[in-house]
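Q: Please design a sequence for this.
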């Protein structure tokens, strides 16, 4: 299916034959016997075929990526084009306007680096998740991880692809957890992978390394003879042919990659035959291959390790649980690692990692929809940049060029006139009655400068970095217009930052898995921070009193989460200004509201020592971090506060009841007094009425019989009583009418 170089295949078979007769790796995970080594040799041959295939398939895209990086490094003229300009008298000038857009993108990433934390998978495991968060940040500091990620992001933005590495360091004097970055030139990927997660559909990954021969022999002692046979002179691949203006002077590309051990389309660049010559310092080229093969494996169906492949060599606890839990067989893709030369394998073993993933994580720029090829921001700016360089070169030529129009015979020596015209103080003598005129091509100059200005603007538009993002004066007069254009530039480059966020998440998961698998020894780690005291974190410490392991980071698994931040700093600043303006208005009538939400406001701001700010604000307000479980002291304090609040509420309730009872008593007393006063008034009125009636009766009997009622009313009115009308007596209560006395 794939073409294989006959010379390499012959050499490979010869070395395999020699190795089978003499040297094989030991049983510590390498090639154990001749039969197993033959199987490894077959895999090696197949993998080398795949590497040759990927070399040819990715040759075009990698050449374009290299040119993109050359443009960023001011190498923007092809040799033949520069030669044409030099012959014309023009200088091949480089006005690298596009670089500023890339530097802005890279600078934005550096200023808005992501933060992250570890979350527990199981209940009551928050404390251990906090310990693992500190461990990850410690390993970041040891490995300079943030600088490696910034380097990888910038390379991906320029060329379209770079790699982040999460691996182990075999040096016992170094930290076992290793984090770094890798140049795309040293890596060949599975070009048929299209998933955002490279592990989902990729089958292999090739990585080239050049090691000093003595170190390689110490690393692989059983392959010593083979390594000596494959060793050669240590040459810097990128410097074995000189470069000038974006191309090698030898015009070796198709160039750029040259021939590698007779392989016409090799992608691992430029290893020439001189690599195999003797030299004082000898080196050997090794290929690291991570590849997946289908295997029938046993998987835990339930229990603590449900869903995990039974593998006691990686997790000793599996040996105890395999007889207790239910298991089933299935086919899974399992990771294997091979360390080899191009001719033969030196080491072939199953991956020692529990996660069974590639340890190199791609950081993508953009990907072409047709075939998934990567490309960066420069790919769309190169043509505009070429035109800009040519316009400025032509404009400078037009500015400094002096054309002379003269009548025939106006001067004796035309070449002498040409030399004098080029001098700033030149003197030209012409014949009388002959015309000699200097023609300065101002129209050509103005046209080229105008086109150059348009190219500069187009470079910023295509690159997604507007004048507003760069802080330059623009035609946007209002703040809203400036923010809108800044937002436009940020959205144009958002895919780059989104791809970086994905790579950080994948790398963080690998780092966390490595910590949970390989941090098994007792260890004391120093955690430092600005404006904070040094913290000593003890992990995997044996407690003789309880017989338990304290801070056992291998006991449970957790999840890695990236705290996303808005890299559009201008928009974030505008949003914060609106929040502070709103809080200022609220503070005029409800300052307690501002104090209660102040920790949330600071949490959304990108400031130095943000966690310390939030902690002090919450301490002043008596608040706590809602994302962390309560400590025993906090639980006790909360219980005491609840009891005090309950007691205070009880006192308030009793006080209210007492006041209400007192009020009821006062109302009852007032009602009784009112009724008493009313009864006295009625008694007095009735007494007055009786007196009036008796008096009226006596008067009536004396003077006029039958006028008793009128007389009584008059007397009562005179005594101060008013007529209240006849009392309403219910019909059932009315007395029977007494007929008048009959005569």
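A: Design:
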């Amino acid at each position: 299916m794939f073409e294989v170089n006959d010379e390499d295949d012959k050499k490979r078979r010869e070395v395999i034959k020699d190795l089978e007769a003499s040297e094989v790796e030991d049983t510590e995970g390498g090639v154990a016997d001749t039969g197993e080594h033959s199987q490894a040799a077959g895999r090696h041959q197949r993998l080398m075929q795949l590497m040759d295939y990927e070399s040819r398939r990715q040759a075009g895209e990698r050449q374009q990526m290299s040119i993109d990086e050359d443009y960023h490094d001011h190498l923007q003229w092809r040799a033949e084009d520069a030669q044409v300009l030099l012959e014309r008298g023009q200088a091949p000038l480089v006005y690298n306007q596009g670089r500023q857009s890339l530097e802005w993108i890279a600078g934005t990433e550096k200023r808005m680096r992501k933060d992250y934390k570890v979350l527990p998978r199981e209940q009551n495991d928050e404390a251990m998740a906090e310990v693992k968060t500190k461990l990850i940040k410690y390993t970041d500091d040891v490995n300079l991880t943030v600088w490696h990620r910034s380097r990888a992001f910038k390379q991906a933005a320029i060329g379209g692809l770079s790699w982040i590495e999460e691996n182990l360091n075999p040096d016992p004097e170094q930290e076992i957890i290793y984090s770094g970055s890798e140049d795309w030139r040293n890596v060949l990927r599975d070009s048929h992978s299209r998933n955002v997660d490279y592990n989902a559909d990729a089958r292999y990954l090739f990585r080239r390394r050049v090691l000093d021969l003595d170190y390689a022999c110490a690393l692989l002692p059983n392959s010593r003879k083979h390594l000596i046979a494959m060793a050669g002179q240590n040459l810097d691949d990128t410097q074995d042919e000189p470069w000038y203006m974006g191309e090698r002077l030898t015009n070796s590309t198709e160039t750029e990659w040259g021939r590698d051990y007779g392989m016409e389309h090799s992608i691992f660049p430029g290893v020439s035959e001189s690599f195999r010559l003797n030299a004082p310092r000898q080196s050997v080229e090794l290929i690291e291959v991570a590849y997946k093969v289908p295997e029938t494996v046993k998987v835990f169906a339930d229990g603590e390790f449900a869903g995990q492949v039974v593998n006691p060599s990686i997790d000793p606890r599996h040996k105890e649980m395999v007889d207790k839990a239910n298991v089933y067989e299935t086919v899974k893709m399992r990771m294997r690692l091979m360390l080899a030369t191009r001719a033969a394998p030196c080491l072939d073993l199953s991956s020692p990692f529990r996660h069974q993933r590639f340890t190199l994580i791609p950081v993508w720029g953009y990907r072409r929809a047709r075939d998934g090829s990567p490309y960066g921001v420069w790919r769309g700016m190169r043509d505009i940049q070429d035109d800009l360089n040519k316009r400025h070169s032509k404009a400078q030529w037009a500015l400094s060029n002096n054309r002379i129009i003269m009548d025939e015979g106006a001067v004796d020596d035309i070449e002498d006139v040409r030399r004098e015209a080029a001098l700033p103080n030149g003197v030209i003598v012409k014949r009388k009655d002959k015309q000699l005129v200097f023609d300065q091509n101002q129209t050509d100059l103005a046209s080229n400068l105008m086109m150059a200005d348009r190219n500069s603007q187009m470079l910023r538009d295509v690159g997604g970095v507007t004048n507003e993002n760069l802080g330059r004066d623009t035609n946007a007069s209002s703040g809203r217009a400036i923010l809108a254009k800044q937002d436009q530039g940020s959205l144009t480059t958002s895919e780059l930052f989104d791809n970086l966020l994905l790579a950080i998440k994948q790398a963080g998961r690998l780092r966390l898995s490595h910590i949970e698998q390989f941090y098994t020894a007792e260890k004391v780690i120093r955690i430092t921070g600005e404006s904070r005291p040094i913290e000593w974190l003890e992990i995997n410490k044996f407690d003789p009193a309880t017989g338990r392991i304290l801070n056992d980071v291998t006991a449970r698994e957790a999840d890695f989460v990236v705290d996303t931040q808005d890299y559009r700093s201008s928009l974030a600043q505008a949003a914060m200004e609106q929040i502070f303006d709103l809080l200022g208005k609220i503070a005029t009538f409800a300052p307690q509201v501002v104090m209660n939400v102040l920790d949330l406001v600071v949490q959304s701001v990108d400031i130095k020592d943000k966690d310390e700010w939030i902690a002090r604000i919450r301490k002043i307000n008596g608040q706590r971090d809602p994302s962390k479980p309560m400590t025993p002291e906090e639980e006790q304090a909360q219980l005491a506060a609840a009891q005090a609040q309950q007691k205070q509420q009880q006192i308030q309730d009793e006080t209210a009841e007492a006041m209400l009872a007192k009020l009821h008593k006062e109302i009852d007393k007032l009602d009784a007094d009112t009724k008493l006063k009313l009864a006295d008034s009625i008694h007095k009125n009735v007494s007055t009425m009786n007196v009036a009636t008796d008096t009226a009766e006596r008067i009536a009997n004396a003077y006029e019989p039958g006028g008793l009622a009128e007389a009584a009313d008059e007397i009562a009115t005179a005594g101060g009583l008013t007529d209240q009308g006849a009392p309403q007596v219910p019909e059932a209560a009315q007395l029977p009418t007494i007929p008048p006395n009959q005569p």
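Q: Thanks. Anything notable?
A: The chain has a mean pLDDT of 75. The first helix runs from residue 6 to 21.
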